[in-house]
Amino acid sequence: MTLLDKIERAGNRLPHPVSLFAIGLLIVILISQVAASFEWTVNNPYTDKLEARSLLSSSGLWWLLSHMVENFIRFPPLAIVLVGMLGIGMAERTGLLPALLRYLMLITPRQLLTPVTLFLGIMSSLGLDAGYVVLPPIAAAMYLAAGRSPLTGIATVFAGVSAGFSANLLITAVDPLLAGFTQAAATIIRPDYQVAVTSNWWFMIASTVILIFAGWFVTAKWVEPAADSYVITEPAEGQAPIDREREKRGLLHALLAILIVFGLIIAAILVPGGPLFGEGKRFDRWIEVTVPILFLMFFIPGVVFGISSGTIKNDRDAAKIMGQTFAGLGPYIVLAFFAAQFIEAFKYSGLGEMLAISGGQYLASLNIISPVLLSGFILVAMTANLFIGSASAKYAFLAPVFVPMLMQIGFSPELTQAAYRIGDSVTNIITPLNPYMVIILAQVQKYARGSGMGTLIAMMLPYALCFALVWTLLLTAWMVLDIPLGPGAPLHFDLSSL
Q1: Rounded distance, CA 377 to CA 371, Å?
Q2: pTM to 2 decimal places
Q3: What is the DSSP letter of 489?
Q4: Are 162 and 385 in contact (CB under 8 A)?
Q5: Is there a domain that residue 48 lies in?
Q6: Which of 32, 167, 309, 482 is most buried (most C-beta within 10 Å)?
Q7: Which of helix, strand or coil describes residue 378?
Q8: In whole angstroms, what is the distance from residue 289 CA to residue 336 CA?
Q9: In a domain, 391, yes or no
Q10: In which domain, by residue range, is 296 found?
């Protein structure tokens, strides 16, 4: 049995993420009782001595029951993900995002096929999972038409869509999701800490550019020569017919709507007296309403495209699409309920802060240089990603421990979040537990007879290794040059603020 087979079997044995959080909650409850019984305390250099609180005591059980609803309602990622996804879901389900990706691929010059394919793959995270479904068959056909192996096209676009999932030129649904978890974890150390949705924006813009060049190099150096060694057979089946005229008309109207909405938002930000002009409570006003802006930028063009292309015929169709979007988020809402209870119980017990203080003090005593320490956390995230596919599930477990722990040695929560995004992305393309592996594998098998999971993983491994190295070096350079990660996002946490 190969290592990959062992990873696949081990990952398949893991409980569902919802069960993991329920089990995690029970473990926190039991450990809190043990810690309180042994009167475990930690000397906090910034506040009074910390003591563990039992969740099995009368007051602890009362807290669990009386705060269960409040914990869920106040869970930071919940509302922002629901609002953001309402807009993105409209753009995706009306067909706007798939159509836009398809047309961009079709107008790409042949000599720029690889970098543009990588770029579109990375940018496809705007539509969440649309890139996995829409782009691979188009990339394969485009490379075949250009006289190149379709396997190269599939591998290239898969690298962009999956290994570069966290990078983007724009704010995506991933940003508010992770920012909510980061903020919840940061409040363990400083209750009033706020994490902006835009906290990694500048870094992710630079990451997009760097990953395109890195992927272009890997494709030319290793992937394409290997893909050319396979005997290619063209599939006989055709694609379902698409009403190109309606789609084209819908795209033109949607692009016009995007320009109008974008212009109005810019005016609201720049014109004195505008609703988005000036400072908010902690950041600029437009930063504090990034999620509503994201909603409008996707929702309005999505509706316009739907009406123009015929996917929306009346208000009932629009309401149905929004309902389907929320229905698709059902598993996330269930996950959020249990994740909220786990995080808040961890916080109430005092275990989170005590582990963070003691762990931070231990890390500081080791005198490990910052880039090495952060690289270690990236490696932890990369390894966890091989076993747990859900980005939110992994981060909900890792954030309450690592965010406050690394705050104790001066790493900002935003910096820890950026490091997590690297580790969470680069190994997506080599883990058999990626649910979209089956879709990509089916595309590979259409063109290469006898290929299997080993074929796909062998093609993608060079991307995973290169992206991990290059992306980590980029974050290291960011730290050395002391560049903000995004609007309102410092690299360092000021310990004197505690």
Answers
A1: 10
A2: 0.72
A3: B
A4: no
A5: no
A6: 167
A7: helix
A8: 22
A9: yes
A10: 78-233+241-497
